[in-house]
Design a protein that fits this description.
Layout lengths: L5 H28 L4 H28 L9 H14 L5 H32 L3 H33 L3
Helix pairs in contact: 1-2, 1-3, 1-4, 2-5, 3-4, 4-5
The structure holds fe (iii) ion (2 copies) and zinc ion (ZN).
One fe (iii) ion (FE) binds next to helix 2, helix 4 and helix 5.
């Protein structure tokens, strides 16, 4: 891989995000299925639908750049999703499991916020206003997902602390 310029790093970072998003699309439904709390499940499902749009935005940016989104695996997201999978395999109380799902999914959102935050900055520096615009939309959605999870955690954490 060539990494001579900020443009190269920009493209690598976008490939990482593309891999991250597609891994989330694959792993997400299993996480959502393990959740019984309706607020949490619908928030996860809603964010999965949004994730499809995020993938399309990345594809559009790559097309404009004349580059392909494939060819890099996001090992960070692979590890985060592996930890979520491990959690789902635990013999846990449901409320405690769901509190854990929120921890895991917030880690996913924070990874994305870091990646997209840098991507927006790079796009602006490189004068790629269209990409900056699209990436900023996704960044906003990731921040909203994180906030939503924090809100739902306020209820689920209490339930996990005082099981029914
Ligand atoms: Fe995303
Ligand atoms: Zn990565
Ligand atoms: Fe996300």
């Amino acid at each position: 891989m060539e990494m001579a310029t900020l443009q190269d790093l920009f493209v690598e970072n976008l490939k990482d995000l593309y891999s991250a998003e597609t891994q989330i699309l694959k792993a997400g439904p299993k996480v959502s299925k393990a959740v019984e709390n309706e607020d949490l499940r619908s928030a996860l499902d809603e964010h999965l639908r949004i994730t499809e749009t995020q993938v399309e935005r990345l594809e559009r940016i790559f097309k404009d750049l004349g580059e392909k989104p494939t060819g890099k695996k996001c090992h960070g997201m692979e590890g985060l999703l592996e930890e979520n999978k491990e959690l789902l395999g635990e013999d846990a109380e449901q409320e405690v499991l769901e509190a854990g799902v929120i921890v895991g999914m917030q880690k996913v959102e924070h990874y994305e916020i870091a990646g997209y935050g840098s991507a927006v900055t790079f796009a602006k520096l490189l004068g790629n206003d269209d990409a900056a615009d699209l990436l900023a939309q996704t960044l906003e959605e990731e921040k909203n997902a994180d906030k939503m999870l924090t809100q739902i955690a306020e209820q689920i954490n209490v339930q996990a602390d005082h099981p029914a």
